[in-house]
UniProtKB/TrEMBL annotation:
InterPro entries: DinB/YfiT-like, Maleyloyr_isom, MDMPI_C-term_domain, MDMPI_metal-binding, SCP2_sterol-bd_dom_sf. It holds the Pfam family MDMPI_N. The keyword Protein biosynthesis does not apply. It comes from [Brevibacterium] flavum. This is Maleylpyruvate isomerase. NCBIfam families: maleylpyruvate isomerase family mycothiol-dependent enzyme. One of its GO terms (molecular function) is metal ion binding. Keywords: Isomerase, Pyruvate. Residues 160-239 form the MDMPI C-terminal domain. The keyword GTP-binding does not apply. Residues 24-152 form the Mycothiol-dependent maleylpyruvate isomerase metal-binding domain.
């Protein structure tokens, strides 16, 4: 099963850029008067979400600077600083947020474009404390923009997300559940391909079935519409991020 991480660097870059364009199109469908309305993420308005996605791009620029220069530049000064940044960004007017988005997208694309072949393999530290090669920023950004394009609540759905990204998300989420000791006995089943994504083994197996887009939507905590459970009742998925 091919995942995002198995693809050549140029293909991963393309998917990240396609996701950014997709997110930008969804943002263009949101009227300025709707920025203060709720996004599909509990507790966040669209302004919070838009600020978060923009500041995430800038944070990834920090990692690319680290990879290219060797100067340690973390994504964020601290978790508290990250939260304060998003809270501040949510107070910006819609035009300022649109400008922030466009600036952050351009800045990250330049950072990727100017990265040397060797620097892609240089190790950096994510905000979660994982040591990863700089090329991991391509997955981090792809995941961010494809999912949050849906969270904007315009017209995007998980069905718009490329299959290779959905497969990677299904595997990543269930692996994260396993590492956290959650989701015991829970299995995601992509019915069209009969592919199973098990979390931690458990005495009582619960299989949540549906299309690939449906089971990823469920696993990512975006609702259980379109999936079924072997027990009859679809359980609440464990937290992922």
């Amino acid at each position: 099963m091919t995942t995002f991480h198995d693809l050549p660097l140029e293909e991963r870059l393309t998917l990240a850029r396609l996701g950014t364009s997709h997110y930008s199109r969804q943002l263009s469908l949101v009227d300025n008067a709707e920025f203060g309305e709720h996004s599909l993420l509990e507790g966040w308005t669209r302004s919070h979400l838009i600020a978060h996605v923009a500041y995430n791009a800038i944070a990834l620029c920090n990692l690319m600077h680290w990879a290219n220069t060797g100067e340690e530049t973390p994504m964020y000064v601290s978790p508290e600083a990250r939260n304060e940044e998003i809270a501040y960004g949510s107070t910006l007017n819609p035009d300022a947020l649109r400008n922030l988005h466009e600036h952050s997208v351009a800045r990250l694309d330049v950072a990727w474009r100017e990265t040397s072949e060797d620097a892609w393999s240089h190790e950096v530290l994510t905000a979660q404390g994982r040591t990863v090669p700089a090329s991991e920023t391509l997955w981090m950004r792809s995941r961010e923009v494809w999912i949050h394009a849906v969270d904007l609540g315009a017209v995007a759905t998980f069905g718009d997300i490329p299959e290779v990204i959905l497969r990677t998300l299904a595997a990543e989420i269930t692996q994260k559940w396993t590492s956290q000791g959650t989701g015991e006995g829970l299995v995601l089943l992509d019915e069209p391909s009969s592919t199973r994504y098990p979390a931690a083994p458990g005495q009582d197996e619960v299989v949540v079935s549906g299309s690939l887009a449906g089971i990823v939507r469920y696993a990512a905590g975006r609702g259980s519409d379109g999936v079924t459970s072997s027990t009859g009742e679809v359980p609440e998925p464990p937290r992922w991020l």
